[in-house]
Amino acid sequence: MSIANTPVLHPDLTPAQRDCLDALPLTGNHVVSGPPGSGKSLLAAHRAVHLALTGRPTLLLSRSNLLRQVLRDILVGLAVPGTPVEASTAHLWVYSRFGRDAPRTEDGWFDWTALIHRAAATSGRIDPATPHLVVDEGQDLPPGLYQLARLAAASVTVFADECQRLTETNSTLTEIADALGRSTGRVEIAGNHRNTREIASLAEHFRTGGNLPDIPFRSGALPVIRHYGGIGVLVDDIAVMAARQPRHRIGVIVNSLRLAADLMRRLERAGLAQEPQMYSSAASAGRYRDLDLTRPGVVLVHRASAKGLDFDTVVIADAESDSGTDPTSATLRMAYYVMITRARERLVVGWQGSRLPRHLEGLDGWVRTG
């Protein structure tokens, strides 16, 4: 017998987003799909709070530690004091459930078969400590994790968009639903509340598969494709953007951590009003691991960690790094679809070299050069 959903209404949700939450019972497994800008991360946080209000511990999971920080900050603004809810990564959840000696595989994940057998040995026992799991950007997690979660969690709700898969160990919506079981509910959320029409239209050029999402009504400036004569010119341009829009969050997305480190050093000497920030997944703690993504200023992030983030301005700094890639490659197109849709107001796609990268050709009408 299912428990009726009794959501906590928050004024920051649109009617469509409230309808999405209302469609999710507080029991069972569910998959919620939606395009970039539809509010999946916000809805995932609301869903986690709703489940935690039943009294059972609830974890809001992500693959990325940087996204975990974003979700943690959202939860702080939503959670009722004392509510047993927290943000975590999928890796940390597995460690907390099976210990630090949980068997690993060469792809950086776990031996799902071994863990599933361990979970099956204790499934069916009523344990009040068994958590509800809510997963954000679930397309970037492997099917094995969902097969395990089906046995090791009280319920699983996954928010995902299979057009935004950036990792080799990923899942389609069908694979997620199949792993969670035949009774898994499916809900779709529409709308794009992040991008302008111009940014969303450029993103559509790179989208692979899926239903055509609604184009936003809000209009803005055309995205810019900009040639940089060198890294110094790129740094100067970023510094000018930061000076002209001191309240904006500027995300500089790179494909090279070496470039990110070089940009960081130069921007630190550029006299910006706000100290620049850089995220490195290799850092275990400190300034390159724990960021404040709510304050204005420049944030340097690798494209692999950009999922789930948004910025007022996005600079894709090194598009030339993809010059040797087939411009029709689904992996390349997904990467640009994700990076472009991080931008709320302004988008600059930068490149260096003597020839425009092939994947940026033929974009007349969607962009301007500058």
TrEMBL record:
GO terms for cellular component: cytosol. GO terms for molecular function: 3'-5' DNA helicase activity; ATP binding; DNA binding. GO terms for biological process: recombinational repair. It comes from the Bacteria. Signal peptide: none annotated. PANTHER family: ATP-DEPENDENT DNA HELICASE SRS2, UVRD / RECB / PCRA DNA HELICASE FAMILY MEMBER. This is Uncharacterized protein.
